[in-house]
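Minutes, project huddle
Topic: does the predicted pose make sense with adenosine-5'-diphosphate bound?
PN asked that the exact inputs be recorded in the minutes so nobody has to dig through chat later. Recorded below.
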Amino acid sequence: MGKIAICPGSFDPITNGHLDIIKRGAKVFDKVYVAVLDNMSKQPLFNVEERKELIRAVTQDIPNVEVDSFHGLLMEYAESKNADAIIRGLRAISDFEYELQLTSMNRVLNDRIETFFIMTNNQYSFLSSSIVKEIAKYHGDISELVPSAVNEALKSRFPVNC
Ligand code: ADP
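Predicted holo structure (tokens), as shared on screen:
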């Protein structure tokens, strides 16, 4: 059987930075589940179904990618999918400390599943969902930062005449 990876995150919404990580992960693993974390404690702009729809729309040409969601512990979800690995993207040094903590904790919970980090493409090193939402709120141009389906969805969330 092929190698299975989970690419977890909030994806509120998916950006070109995420998409780059997903595409590169999908070249290495036989199957990649992009898994939207259903986290009640965060106040998302898009609900889980909307986030999944957007991810589906922009990954439809990658045959080994499947979009899903989960709540609770990532390692339990990964085990339920029989995953071999978790894929995370790494941007600046600031990501490192948080990811080290998260990965170390996940290893305590399950030491069979490895976490793999993919270094961000330089052009996306500053890019995050929150920055994209902030710019979109003030109707700035984000067409280079997100896929066009996401750009449209953000435009309708923040109409110019409001
Ligand atoms: P989380 O809330 O778990 O950080 P995100 O949706 O913000 O979820 O990010 C999911 C994953 O994608 C994380 O591993 C994050 O580091 C990575 N990521 C986000 N933006 C970028 C980017 N611009 N370049 C590379 N990786 C990124």
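Observations noted during the meeting:
- The radius of gyration is 16 Å.
- The first strand starts at residue 4 and ends at 9.
No decisions taken; revisit at the next huddle.
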